[in-house]
Automatic annotation (TrEMBL):
Pfam family, one: TetR_N
The keyword Methyltransferase belongs to this UniProt entry's keyword annotation: no
UniProt keyword Amino-acid biosynthesis present: no
Portion annotated as DNA-binding: 27-46
Residues covered by the HTH tetR-type domain: 4-64
InterPro entries named among the record's database cross-references: Homeodomain-like_sf (IPR009057), HTH-type_Tx_Regulator (IPR050624), HTH_TetR (IPR001647)
Protein keywords: DNA-binding
MF terms in GO: DNA binding
Name the UniProt record assigns to this protein: TetR/AcrR family transcriptional regulator
PANTHER family, alphabetized: ACREF/ENVCD OPERON REPRESSOR-RELATED, ACREF_ENVCD OPERON REPRESSOR-RELATED
Source organism of the structure: Wansuia hejianensis
Lineage per the UniProt record: Bacteria, Bacillati, Bacillota, Clostridia, Lachnospirales
Membrane-crossing segments per the record: none
Length: 204
């Protein structure tokens, strides 16, 4: 749906306010005043401050989760194709795709990671971690049944490691790294964590 000039102005000013103050401290009154419109004009587009925040972040943040779920499914396809040895390479490939997607929508993810307290996105990283752990636990179980995995990892430890990994990836956004820096950083991160997983799980 095409945005009106009024809507574009509200989004532009709202993004600046949220980035500067975070969702909780951002002032709807200040947004409306700076945008040069009445509250009535604002409410014609968004029924609350949170609805405005959602409009700024939901398209990118929700799409990343959808793509993340597709990436998880791709690992199950390795099982049926007897290519499970390529699992870590596939994960790294998707990681590069995701970091570029994040940087294509940098401001939206900056809002999610740094400014979302008080919104449904405040636990965004945790939700990704839960998705990853749930699916990976099931994937590892399938590998064990096929005799392709020897080691085991307690779920609590699995969650801790995954949380550390995801938090580290999003540190690129929190610290305003350039895209080039971020890509180099997360690829080195992938090497580090892949070595750790290989040591713990003993893939065959």
């Amino acid at each position: 749906m095409k945005l009106t000039d009024t809507q574009k102005r509200i989004l532009e000013v709202g993004k600046r306010e949220f980035l500067e103050k975070g969702f909780k401290d951002a002032s709807l009154r200040a947004i409306v005043k700076e945008a040069g419109f009445t509250k009535g004009a604002f409410y014609g587009y968004y029924n609350s401050k949170e609805a405005l925040f959602d409009a700024l972040v939901a398209p990118a943040a929700d799409e990343l989760i959808a793509q993340f779920k597709q990436a998880q499914q791709a690992h199950y396809e390795l099982v049926t194709e007897d290519k499970t040895g390529q699992s870590q390479d596939l994960s790294t490939s998707y990681l590069n795709y995701f970091i570029n997607y994040i940087y294509d929508h940098f401001d939206a993810f900056k809002l999610v990671i740094c400014c979302s307290e008080g919104t449904r996105y405040a636990n965004y990283i945790h939700e990704l971690v839960e998705l990853e752990v749930d699916q990976t636990e099931d994937y590892y179980q399938q590998l064990r049944q096929l005799g392709k995995l020897e080691g085991t990892v307690n779920r609590d430890l699995h969650h801790m490691i995954t949380s550390a990994y995801f938090t580290a990836v999003f540190e690129t956004v929190a610290h305003d790294m350039s895209r080039e820096q971020a890509i180099g950083y997360v690829n080195e991160l992938a090497v580090f964590f892949n070595c750790g997983w290989s040591g713990l799980l003993r893939f065959k």
